[in-house]
Amino acid sequence: GRQWRPALGLLQRMAQVAVEADAISCGVGVAACDTGLAWELALEALQLSQRRGLQLGVIGCNAVVSACADAHSWEQAAEQLLTARRRGLTQDAVSFNAATSACEKGHCWQKALQLPAEARQVRLQVDVLGSSAAISACENAEQWAHALLALEGLEASRLEASLVTFNAAISACQKGQKRGEALRILRAMQDAGVRADAVSYSAAVLSCSAAGRWRHAQLLTAEMRAHGLETGTDTYSLLVMDCEDRDGTAAWR
């Protein structure tokens, strides 16, 4: 985890003694900084390569963007992605995935949704990892409508949504109190052959409860248990309280 210090120090020493660093050595320095979660120093290594007129290519670009993403610095990740594009550096899906992940961690859902469109402009297709990060960003911001649009875009691109992708979309609908949409996604993931887990069902159950459909919530919980999944303590407690509030008895039991 600390290998970036000697790697960057060696690059700086090479510059001091006029030893010609090449693209490989600079690339190693950038990647080492990425591994060490030191995005500022990853940028410094990148700038050193640029001063020497070296092009690090897609690996160097990915390392810098990933370092920014790991540090939750979405602004720097997006800026480096744009800078690389302006310089004509090669980018791939990994570059955009890392930047989208940074936006998710930085709670910037608008930029997270924008990046897949930018990827398409340069004839790249963001894969399911990038799309999942964008949907998760929408979930965190309680932007259920945008989460659904992103999920539909994933399907339109003929990419198979993962369990994480579906769960983020269901949770976004649950937070937005959109019971119908949450249930539709739950069934869609089952139709797609993706096995729902406790997170999937819990979000759908809470959506039903919030909409006053507690009997439907009971049926979903029974289905959940039939699949060998356990109801989380928090979910169970909320449902019991909801039932008691509605009819004065613990009907859930």
Uncertain ranges: 1-37, 248-253
Compute the CA-based radius of gyration: 23 Å
Quote the CATH topology of the largest domain.
Answer: Serine Threonine Protein Phosphatase 5, Tetratricopeptide repeat
CATH architectural designation of the largest domain: Alpha Horseshoe
Overall geometry comes to elongated
In quaternary terms, these chains amount to single chain
By helix and strand content, what is the structural category? mainly alpha
Give a nutshell description of this structure:
The chain has 253 residues and is mainly α.
Properties at a glance:
disordered C terminus, single chain
Describe this structure in words.
This protein folds into two domains: 1-114; 127-253, Tetratricopeptide repeat domain (Serine Threonine Protein Phosphatase 5, Tetratricopeptide repeat, Alpha Horseshoe). The chain starts with a helix and ends in a 6-residue tail after the last helix. The protein has helices at residues 4-16, 23-35, 39-51, 57-70, 74-86, 93-105, 109-121, 128-140, 144-156, 163-175, 179-191, 198-210, 214-226, 233-247. The protein has 14 helices and no strands. It has 253 residues and is an all-alpha fold. PPR repeats lie at residues 162-196, 197-231.
